[in-house]
Amino acid sequence: MLLVDGTESSLRAMLQALPPVDEVGAHARAAMLGTRSIKTTSKSWAIDTAISMIDLTTLEGSDTPGKVRALCNKAVRPDSTDATVPHVGAICVYNDMVAVARKHLDAIGGADIPVAAVSTAFPSGRASREVKIRDTQDALDAGATEIDMVIDRGAFLAGDIMKVFTEIVYIKELCGDRAHLKVIFETGELVTLDNVRKASFLAMAAGADFIKTSTGKISPAATPPVVLVMLEAVRDFYAQTGVKIGVKPAGGIRNTKDAIKQLVLVNETAGAQWLNPQLFRIGASALLNDLLMQRMKLRDGHYAGPNYVTLD
C-alpha cells in the first residue's frame, strides 16, 4: 500500500520513492509499440472499441445549444445508417452547456451516456480555490456526472505539491458519489516524463478516478511516451493498492491509426483489463469521423463519399 496520510512529508516520501523514468527507453518502447500491425478482424474490434471510448468534445467559445444537441445526436448514433455502431463514452462540454447536453441525451435515448464538464478554471487552472469549487459545483448542479479538472501547473512546477494535492482532494470530495473525477495535467507544460509520473501518483493518491494528459489547448499533448508513462503509473498504482485508475489521453489523436496505437499501448502496458470505457477514454472531436470512415471501408470495401459523416 502507498503510505500517504495527506501530510506533506508523506507525499514527498512517496514521490521521492518513485523510480526515475528512462526517457530514452520510454520513447523507444512507445515507438516500437506504434509499429504493431493489426489484422482485419482485430481492426474491426479496435475501431468499435475506440468509438466506445471517445469523450466527444466541443470546448469552443462559439459553442451554441444547437451545436451541442447535434453532438449529442452523434454521440448516441454515430452512424445514422448503422445501428450496430456503439455509442461514445461521454459528451464533454463547458459548464453552461451541461444542462443542454443532459436534457437532450435523456430525450433521445442517451441516458447512459455521461456528460463531462471541464472545471477548476479550465484550461489554465489559475484561480482561487473558492472559484474552482464554485465552478465544479455549478457543473454538478447542472447534471455533470464526470468532472475534468485541471491542476495548477505553476504550483506543481514550483514544488507546491500540497496545493495541488489538497485541491484535488477538495474537488473529489465535492464530486462524492455524484461524479467521477478526471485530473488533467497539461503534460506539455510539465516538461519531463519524471514530472508526468509524479503528477500521476500525486493525483491518484488524492483520489482521482482518471488521470488525463491535456486540455487539448496546448501542444504537445497526448504523445505516446507520455501516455505510456501514465499507463505504467496506473498499472503500478494498482499493483500497490488494488485500485484501478483510468487514463484519458486528449489532444492530437485525430485518426484511426492514432487511436489504434493508443489501444496497443494500453494492452501492452496496463493490460487488457484497461481496454474498456470505464478505464480508458480518448478526448477527441475529429477522431470519430475517421473511425466511421474506416469502419465503412472494412464493411463495404470502399470509402464513403464526402457527405457520409457530419461535420463537427
Q: Got a strand count? A: 8
Mean pLDDT over all positions: 94
**Annotated CATH architecture:** Alpha-Beta Barrel
- Helix percentage range: 40-55%
> What's the number of helices?
12
- CATH superfamily caption: Aldolase class I
Uncertain runs: none
Measured between the Cα atoms of the first and last residue, the distance is: 45 Å
Order of helices and strands, N to C? Answer: HHHEHEHEHEHHEHEHEHEH
Class from secondary-structure proportions? alpha/beta
Assess the beta-strand content as a share of residues. 5-15%
Report the CATH topology name.
Answer: TIM Barrel
Question: CATH first level: which class?
Answer: Alpha Beta
Domains, number = 1
Care to describe what's here?
With 312 residues, this protein is α/β, with parallel strands linked by helices. The protein has one domain: TIM Barrel. It has helices at residues 8-16, 23-33, 40-53, 65-76, 98-107, 129-142, 153-157, 161-175, 193-206, 224-241, 256-269, 287-300; strands at 54-57, 90-93, 115-119, 146-150, 180-184, 210-212, 246-248, 282-284. The chain has an 8-stranded parallel β-sheet with strand order 7-6-5-4-3-2-1-8. Helix 8 (161-175) packs across helix 9 (193-206). The longest helix is centred in the last third of the chain and has 18 residues, at 224-241. The N and C termini lie far apart (45 Å). The relative contact order is 0.15.
Describe, in short, the structure shown.
Helix content is 48%, strand content 10%. With 312 residues, it is of the alpha/beta class. The protein has an 8-stranded parallel sheet.
